[in-house]
Amino acid sequence: MKIIATVKEMQRLAQKAKRLGKRIGFVPTMGYLHEGHAALLRKCKKENDICILSIFVNPTQFGPHEDFQQYPRDKKHDEMLAKKEKVDIIFYPSVEEMYPSGYLTYIEIEKISDVLCGHSRPGHFRGVATIVAKLINAVNPDTLYLGQKDAQQVVVIKQMVKDLGYPTRVKALATVREKDGLALSSRNMYLSREERHQALSLYQSLRLAKELVNKDERSSQIIIQQMTKIIKKNSLAQIDYISCVDAKTLLPAKRLKGDILIALAIFIGKTRLIDNILIST
Amino acid sequence: MKIIATVKEMQRLAQKAKRLGKRIGFVPTMGYLHEGHAALLRKCKKENDICILSIFVNPTQFGPHEDFQQYPRDKKHDEMLAKKEKVDIIFYPSVEEMYPSGYLTYIEIEKISDVLCGHSRPGHFRGVATIVAKLINAVNPDTLYLGQKDAQQVVVIKQMVKDLGYPTRVKALATVREKDGLALSSRNMYLSREERHQALSLYQSLRLAKELVNKDERSSQIIIQQMTKIIKKNSLAQIDYISCVDAKTLLPAKRLKGDILIALAIFIGKTRLIDNILIST
Fold first, then answer.
1. Residue in chain B nearest A109 by alpha carbon
2. Are residues A12 and A77 in the same domain?
3. pLDDT at B19
């Protein structure tokens, strides 16, 4: 397993691999890897000749009052997990390598970046799109693997890759959950024991939504009302948003028809957690 | 000479060439080719194994009241010129191919896009950066050739290529001029006989600026004053801007020191013309 710190070296290795006709799979992460990342890496390893993992806590996707500084980092543990999953290359650049002094270029994806998490976190998806474009230019992947937990990120990256014409496929893999339903996230480590317990309400509310849809409820207003009730039972929970949107355009869906994303962001104490389900009616 | 209309086919050919270890040179244009483009193509042909020319009048770099519709097009003449310069591939996509319905992604280069021509043409360099990124993703060039006439475009594209980490070199070639000094531009065809004559004032004013610098004048205010006088002698001329800026940051230079770009944009009748010189003090 190679650990690469510079874009130039990463590019050199990727281009060499491409010249030999190898398929490159790529899993971009912010590190502090968990079983959700491991699932992406296993799929990536299985479907490609070379499996590349990037670890980079990307400052441009954090707002000024968000948790960039505190975001958990554990290089040693990440390397162990990567080795276990037989990662071929870890791309591990510094902030200065990715955003040297005088950096000026940003990628904006209109409309779909401004809703849901983008509404609560202005500039977030601009930062995400920019770093992913830079990583694609460095890694040259045939296929890029993302977790469905970050549903809007998947939509935004797919749109960017299509619009800019990158010769890269984007695959989203199902959210990996704890046994009790909590979606895996590096931010779960912020939670106290009581917060961890109340955080279960996110998935509980999504399961209820699914039940309602299965019972032919099609009004997003009613579904959101019922989900809100579940969340509000938790004293430490504060709703950022609960939304039913078209799975492609991310526009609000009054009636649930076709492919629908039901997504929510909830503060549990100071920790902002997200979760979602996709449904087809 | 192949003519390619789709990104996919362009990408396929470029990747095939790269796998064979060939160097790809690329000249992006809006067509209506003149001797300035020909000079870029000759250099491109000489320095690479494959010379690719793109012809695309890019709607996103035109403002709502600009000349996108009227911009001159002459496919037949362009193909003849390309053949004469031994171009290997013309990439000739449609607007629908580059911006299909539902297109949402744009690239912004902060600060340097907002001054000079960017100040007069809001959104212009966002459109330029976006299309050039899309073209680079399609063509995979080792080297990209631009004309120095569009000095700010050169600075913006160089910044984008560096920031996003494209493995592409950007080379700017000297402005090609008519015998009387008029910088070649596809827009010169808009000029009446009298306008064509008054358009000479752009280069005349730049030559005067150079003379003043050679005589140790270092105040940009005085240089701009003298240039303004020359332009104002022409009844059909209207100044958009005349500026002395740092050649890299494009920030205003009060005193001429180091690498300086002296640039101007002048309306001659309804036609907006630009020209510039680089000086080192």
1. B105
2. yes
3. 87
